[in-house]
Amino acid sequence: MQIKIATAFCCAKESKFIKYQLLLHLKFQKMYQRIINKEAKVALVGLGYVGLPIALAFAKKIKVIGFDINALRIDMMRNAIDPSNELDSLAFANSDIVFTNDLEVLKEANFFIIAVPTPVDDHNVPDLTPVLKASETIGKVIKKGDYVVYESTVYPGCTEEDCLPVIEKISGLKAGVDFMYGYSPERINPGDKVHTLENVVKVVSGSNCEALDIIAKTYELVVSAGVHRASSVKVAEAAKIIENTQRDLNIALMNELSIIFDKMGINTYEVLEAAGTKWNFLKFFPGLVGGHCIGVDPYYLTYKSSQLGYNSRVILSGRTINDEMAVHVAKKTVQAIIKSSINIAQSKVLVMGCTFKENVSDIRNSKVADVVKELQAFNVTVHVTDTHADSEELLHEYGFGLVKDIEKDYDAVIIAVNHESYNQYEESYFESITKPDALIVDLKGVYRNKITHLKYWSL
Fold first, then answer.
1. Which member of 94, 155, 175, 455 lies 3.0 to 4.6 Å from 439 by CB, making a disulfide possible if both were Cys?
2. Is it true that 2-231 and 258-457 share their CATH fold?
3. What count of other Cβ atoms lies within 10 Å of the Cβ of residue 437?
């Protein structure tokens, strides 16, 4: 009799569990329909260069919660101001979005997208602090039947091995059972008005086939170019890493060639122009490699590789070349000043542009700062100007700000960033702000064959 009662109890318990699983399964399946019916909300966690454009794109179609821990940034976005200066006020129009730093508001979401930065520290070791903190936040608000998707660039395995356990620990829920997850690497390119979220294919992945389908269809709401469904989260993570690692290595080759050609007295850009006439020649160019992608992502791959017992040779060699280019530029400038019989301690150099790339205000990991520091190490007086960067932000991040007025007696001018506003000058302008026989350092070769009276050098 006791055995029959126990068996009946177990059967009832098992039946209840199966019923619960079926209901949860239906909830997972219905997520997309609930999103497009505006019954479920999508939340973007991290509203920087990546998160805000995604949030606003979704908000044109569905209900969105934009979450950021920075209260000042939240206030700006509530007033249709992009703190990153990438989007104008019109981008905020007709958007069904609530900006908040309140966890209680974030709890209203059912589909979470994490788009926080993933930098490296001073030793080029991945700093997972932002993405792990974001995971802690999700752990406090996620519910059974919800979805979470990571967009932050990480090494293969990070989402499942480092991030999800944080959510599980705080929430008490099981990834892939109580909530579904995925990874869809960001492809936002700051300053690029052509390759936008909507018209660039989006790589997506999911914890299982069902999750992949829901995540893919959700992104298809805003990505008109369509999505590529990766076979696993790790594959999607790896795809993102090698996109930028490939570019980093190709630029490193160009930088090394520029050093070699400089010793030969050959202009690198003329060589590339000639070689580029062949149909299969890849058109990369030398330059300073900074920013939050190309100059950072390869270190995530080599870090994970070293953990697995393989020490990268090619990738780290490329990184070394690119990281040393700022020193190369500064030394070439100093050498030219000295050759002009000028006391280097009494010399003055103007650096034009200090953001990590042209036509953006982003100064993160700007290698121009390394050029400035190297020149200052030689006791050179350095003035910096930039039409996009914020002086106070530069002062806080790198210890120098922007000059208010450009003077008339520079021994050298370094055109470090190819801002559109810096491409329109005649040689007479540079002559008006420099001493006779000054040096023009043109890192991007914009003024090649246009500077004839002053000294000229480019990578």
1. 455
2. yes
3. 13
> What is the three-state SS of the chain?
CHHHHHHHHHHHHHHHHHHHHHHHHHHHHCHHHHHHCCCCCEEEECCCCCHHHHHHHHHCCCCEEEECCCHHHHHHHHCCCCCCCCCCHHHHCCCCEEEECCHHHHCCCCEEEECCCCCECCCCCECCHHHHHHHHHHHHHCCCCCEEEECCCCCCCHHHHHHHHHHHHHHCCCECCCEEEEECCCCCCCCCCCCCCCCCCEEEEECCHHHHHHHHHHHCCCCCCCEEECCCHHHHHHHHHHHHHHHHHHHHHHHHHHHHHHHHCCCHHHHHHHHCCCCCCCCCCCCCCCCCCCCCHHHHHHHHHHHCCCCCCHHHHHHHHHHCHHHHHHHHHHHHHHHCCCCHHHCEEEEECCCCCCCCCCCCCCCHHHHHHHHHHCCCEEEEECCCCCHHHHHHHHCCCCCCCCCCCEEEEEECCCCHHHCCCCHHHHHHCEEEEEEEEECCCCCCCCCCCCEEECC
Close Cβ partners of 69 (under 8 Å, ≥ 6 residues apart):
101
d(CA 55, CA 44): 6
Q: Which residues are catalytic?
A: 293
What CATH number should be reported for the domain whose range is 258-457? 3.40.50.720
Q: Which sequence spans correspond to the domains of the chain? A: 2-231, 258-457
Q: Which of 75, 73, 55, 57 is nearest to 65 (CA)?
A: 55
Per residue of the chain (459 residues), give pLDDT as tens. Answer: 555 544 444 454 555 545 555 666 676 788 999 999 999 999 999 999 999 999 999 999 999 999 999 999 999 999 999 998 889 999 999 999 999 999 999 999 999 999 999 999 989 999 999 999 999 999 999 999 999 999 999 999 999 999 999 999 999 999 999 999 999 999 888 877 888 889 999 999 999 999 999 999 999 999 999 999 999 999 999 999 999 999 999 999 999 999 999 999 999 999 999 999 999 999 999 999 988 788 899 999 999 999 999 999 999 999 999 999 999 999 999 999 999 989 999 999 999 999 999 999 989 889 999 999 999 999 999 999 999 999 999 999 999 999 999 999 999 999 999 999 999 899 999 999 999 989 999 999 999 999 999 999 999
Of 411, 410, 414, 412, nearest in space to 459 by CA:
414
Topology, domain 2-231: Rossmann fold (3.40.50)
